[in-house]
Amino acid sequence: MIMSRIPAAPGEAQGNLTDRLLAGLPAEAVLTDPDVTASYAHDMASFCPAGSPAVVVLPRTVEQVQHVLRTATALRVPVVAQGARTGLSGGANATDGCIVLSLTRMDRILEISPVDRIAVVEPGVVNADLARAVGEHGLSYPPDPSSWETCTIGGNIGTASGGLCCVKYGVTAEYVLGLDVVLADGRLMSTGRRTAKGVAGYDLTRLFVGSEGSLGVVVRAVLGLRPKPPRRLVLAAEFASAAAACDAVCRIMAGGHVPSLLELMDRTTVRAVNDLARMGLPESTEALLLAAFDTADPAADLAALGALCEAAGAGQVVPADDAAESELLLEARRLSLPALEAVRGTTMIDDVCVPRSRLGDLIEGVERIAGKYRLTIGVVAHAGDGNTHPTVCFDAADPDESRRARESFDEIMALGLELGGTITGEHGVGVLKKEWLAREIGPVGVEMQRAVKQVFDPLGILNPGKLF
Amino acid sequence: MIMSRIPAAPGEAQGNLTDRLLAGLPAEAVLTDPDVTASYAHDMASFCPAGSPAVVVLPRTVEQVQHVLRTATALRVPVVAQGARTGLSGGANATDGCIVLSLTRMDRILEISPVDRIAVVEPGVVNADLARAVGEHGLSYPPDPSSWETCTIGGNIGTASGGLCCVKYGVTAEYVLGLDVVLADGRLMSTGRRTAKGVAGYDLTRLFVGSEGSLGVVVRAVLGLRPKPPRRLVLAAEFASAAAACDAVCRIMAGGHVPSLLELMDRTTVRAVNDLARMGLPESTEALLLAAFDTADPAADLAALGALCEAAGAGQVVPADDAAESELLLEARRLSLPALEAVRGTTMIDDVCVPRSRLGDLIEGVERIAGKYRLTIGVVAHAGDGNTHPTVCFDAADPDESRRARESFDEIMALGLELGGTITGEHGVGVLKKEWLAREIGPVGVEMQRAVKQVFDPLGILNPGKLF
């Protein structure tokens, strides 16, 4: 990585910005080489529009972040906060002339308390690093987005991210107890608590969770932890139709079961995984359900769940005998997105969440939409939550195919809303779903959300152009 | 209850208000008899200041609530929303000349879905009625404030209330998925979702939870449910010191146990219960710990927990053999507040929550404060959450004792903050802890909270004088 004290853009404004940033940051924390700054332009939604940052800053302290925000306010320069840029909605994409504020170097775990079951962390801590660190104390930090080996806690908080274990353990928001936030004008505000409970005043902590860097910059978080559960055991069940698999999901949830994972892969996804990895999944499979328990007696719980799958018409039901077999079964699920990406080179990943009783209707609808637009759309779903990822496969070099991809992507969101769902279960709005947020929450909702934004960011410098 | 179309106060303003309310409400829903309206003046914190309502309205529909708010906005009349008025901080106390908006008649359970694990309810539904109704579908609604047989879901949402089972199942906030809210100007806004997950825009749902009627009026809530757990089994452990009991709590939590209840009663409380109910608790008890599990094998879990209590120095450890014995053990806990109330006629109940590692320090400090102010202060605590209710017993007819009671009450909050805790774990701020909210969240926090209030209530008509 090339570091430079010399601003790349020779203009006076750029020079002024860089000089003022350098007054409170070490030279190695201020990047202006355009080749370097361009690499910070976007997250994983590479097809979303992204501007060119004027500068990238990599602070290590709260005071440095405050300096960046004070400078941005003084010069009216937009600030785009970033973690590991593994987001899928363009929420961390740069805007032209912005300061990219990368929090990745603020990566210290400040405290882990087994008695209080909390961790205090900086925003740049990688999710998996935290999970491992608390694991050494017999604790777990449950939220586990697919990108957990690289994504940061700050990014998780910004996007209110989910993961595979939400069906039992809930989402990121449920684990954020308190925050230190640098406001747009550089002032530091603490929200929330480090206690198990607390209701002093409005819940501003939750307001920041999922706010995509548009209300302030999280510089410290108090996170709730849980005792480490027993090792999970996985079962795979194969169905001759997606409808039967969705019926099984409904039976499992109505039956009062609490699996720690309940995932669905549709036919398209199963075939894509076979093509990529030759995993030997039966090509006749129309839907594959993966379930896990991390209870005291997972084998017994899996047996009961397997019986419900059979009652719903499952062909094969394969419970794993041990942890190694369990991980093997999950490998197919992990390969789903790379496999679908391999189909046409690029994917656009929907994140529609519907009441789980409508899961079957959504999957059926996606199949219809795929036909209508002559596209491959694979569905992987956190089925237990009704949270689906219909993944539109397209060739980004083909304008007509790209247009059809976007139209089908939108039509899936419309279907989700029609079924009583939301346009985003865990990926956030970013730039990808801006128009759709308004459709979901309505004009009064948008008006109030904009007014809240105005309270925290009166100059509109925090991640402008995202959410609405 | 006396109903009247005729305004009690003969003034023109009062007449105008009542007439305009009657334009959109049936006569039986508009109460103006001063003897009747006075009975709506305050919640259970009877010693907190309360004004005289101009009128009490009891709407049955969303449209009627909208009419009330439109009228209030047009005439600039304050609106105080109320549920069952079981709150303990004066949050539902009337202000002079206000409209008391009682939501108790909007008490329909609109939907219960075992597959989606949600209930959709109106705000006036009584907590226990909901618990029983969902129980018939094999589901549970966990939040269980002590007043659950009378308190309403709307009140629970307004105060973000807790209960006995929070240590395992969390608080009200974690079960509120979506809301319909009537804004100050009468417009209707929907927030959140009816799906298991959802991150579309800012989390306004959580902003309303615990906002004490100061941002809008909840008229419908989508609540998350859980499968009904197995029947719980309870254990009682008796300690020769509060410090030893707190040590046991720390060992239990650090040991990765997840009891569904973990309560503590100090010596003062144990004696008060003995005095009230002759339960025959040993008078030598310095602290009593009650624990429960609702797991598949609660006896085994209780045995492990009992061993930790013994390691921490417990004298007697008494596990219940069955549900009946369990309920008997919990009876002492349920009688704690009535018993402490009987000591001097009135109580002021603190709600300090500290990191559970500091629980022992808090209880020791409360004992010191009781001595300093020559008062009886009993501590009952949701020990597993570090959420304590130091209960100051005083004679409200004695001005000096009342003054000392208030001073000791405040000193306990100061101690809670000093120990890294919060002034309120589950009862809210109301009027009782207004000055203390500012001390806890600091000037920047107060400024931002006030600004958020301004967004939703620009005229300041919603429950004025509460929170800050």
TrEMBL record, chains A, B:
PROSITE patterns: FAD_PCMH (PS51387). InterPro entries: FAD-bd_oxidored_4_C, FAD-bd_PCMH, FAD-bd_PCMH-like_sf, FAD-bd_PCMH_sub2, FAD-linked_Oxase-like_C, FAD-linked_OxidoTrans_Type4, Oxid_FAD_bind_N, Vanillyl_alc_oxidase_C-sub2. Residues 49-228 form the FAD-binding PCMH-type domain. The keyword Oxidoreductase applies. Its cofactor is FAD. Pfam families: FAD-oxidase_C (PF02913), FAD_binding_4 (PF01565). Keywords: FAD, Flavoprotein, Oxidoreductase. It comes from the Bacteria. PANTHER family: GLYCOLATE OXIDASE SUBUNIT GLCD. This is FAD-binding oxidoreductase. It comes from Streptomyces cinereospinus.
